[in-house]
């Protein structure tokens, strides 16, 4: 009869026919005794805990910063870039400058040449300086002599061939 009743109530849901009727929850309160702290009795013998003071919030600088933030919030309706205190802007600028300086030093350290590379470059430059002028000087001195000898040899060879 219950299945028929469910089917009549929910004809489009066939799973409703296979459900069992809902059960009533078991009375839990009869098995568990009420807690002791709910009685409302206060023991005067117990030491009551005190709230600990946060050292950051108690510091003078934190209180000043908090006061300044509250005042700037009330004036401008929020904390923006323009409402930063001068000290904070100066500190941020210093920090930026230090970062830039540090990056430059790191770049220079990367670009620095090791002592071995420096010595090799010096020797290479010295060899180039010695080799190039010596080659040109030698070429300029020897070539005209070679050309002159070559002309003489041709003339002598040509004269000796004609005479025979």
UniProtKB/TrEMBL annotation:
This is Actin-associated protein FAM107A. GO terms for molecular function: actin binding. It is found in: Cell junction, Focal adhesion; Cell membrane; Cell projection; Cytoplasm, Cytoskeleton, Stress fiber. Keywords: Actin-binding, Cell cycle, Cell junction, Cell membrane, Cell projection, Coiled coil, Cytoplasm, Cytoskeleton, Growth regulation, Membrane, Nucleus, Stress response, Synapse. The gene is FAM107A. GO terms for biological process: actin filament bundle assembly; actin filament polymerization; regulation of actin cytoskeleton organization. Its main location: other. One of its GO terms (cellular component) is neuron projection. InterPro entries: FAM107 (IPR009533).
């Amino acid at each position: 009869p219950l299945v028929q009743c469910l089917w009549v109530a929910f004809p489009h849901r066939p799973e409703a026919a296979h459900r069992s009727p809902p059960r009533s929850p078991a009375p839990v309160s009869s098995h568990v005794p009420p807690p002791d702290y709910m009685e409302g009795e206060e023991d005067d013998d117990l030491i009551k805990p005190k709230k600990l003071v946060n050292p950051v919030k108690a510091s003078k600088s934190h209180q000043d910063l908090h006061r300044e933030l509250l005042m700037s919030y009330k004036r401008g309706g929020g904390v923006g870039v323009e409402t930063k205190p001068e000290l904070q802007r100066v500190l941020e600028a210093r920090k930026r400058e230090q970062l830039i300086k540090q990056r430059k030093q790191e770049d220079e350290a990367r670009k620095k040449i090791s002592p071995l590379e420096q010595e090799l470059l010096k020797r290479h430059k010295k060899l180039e300086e010695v080799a190039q002028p010596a080659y040109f000087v030698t070429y300029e001195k020897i070539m005209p002599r070679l050309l002159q000898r070559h002309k003489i040899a041709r003339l002598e060879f040509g004269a000796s061939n004609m005479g025979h």
